[in-house]
Design a protein that fits this description.
Elements lengths: L23 H12 L3 E5 L2 E2 L4 E2 L4 E4 H18 L8 E3 L5 H11 L5 E3 L5 H12 L3 E4 L1 H13 L7 E4 L9 H9 L3 E4 H10 L12 E6 L9 E5 H14 L3
Parallel strand pairs: 5-6, 5-7, 6-10, 7-8, 8-9
Antiparallel strand pairs: 1-4, 2-3, 10-11
Helix pairs in contact: 2-3, 2-7
Amino acid sequence: SSIYRSSHSPSQLASTVHPRLNTAFNIFEVACELYGDQELFGTRLFNSETGKYDDFYTFQTYPQVRKRRNYLRSGIMNLFPNKRNFVVSIFSPNRPEFLITEHAASAYSLPMTSLYDTLGPKTTEYILNLTESPILVCPIDKVLKVLSIVASHDIPHLKYIISMDPINFDKDFGIIQLAKENHISIMSIDQLEAIGAKNPIPFIPPKPETLFAISFTSGTTGNPKGVKLSHKSVSAAIGGCISLISK
């Protein structure tokens, strides 16, 4: 059949809107340069005194997120000084720590994958074992859920669970003990960022062909299928979206 192209690029196939914007890492770095001290992530924080979420958003700026990204990247690599390539797993709804973890992984050319409540515990076990992911980042309310799966299944590669929320050693003692019984270390993302701040590790920026993520299907015909997404494919997808958005 005939070849159909976007009217924005009729003569050639465009994979990125600019040669420099060819990886998720580069895209974020350029955004930080362009937008300076502007706000990036906004969150409605939970107020423990009122038992409700705030009516206003608390924001983190581009420089703040970039600094946290750098600290978290170094923190993760300090946990695995002898590992060069592994999958970082995330089990979380949309929140800033999800994307900060994603950017931290990209800054060291590490791929990430996501776990999903909707796919059930068997799928969680399957994905963790298939990817051999040694680290999982999730909110505190999902830590016990993951540990329960670990306690009843063989997931030998998982060594660290990082809580996106603070850990209360009195309130969460049972979770900490269960993790210890299953040979898993648990800490908060703030603690891991503090480790990275004291022990910085240089970037290893990804190339366009570097694996960005493994996205799993719902598994309607058996076990979920992992789709490999490169940084180049992410850049192309973003470029496609930009080409369709009118200013």
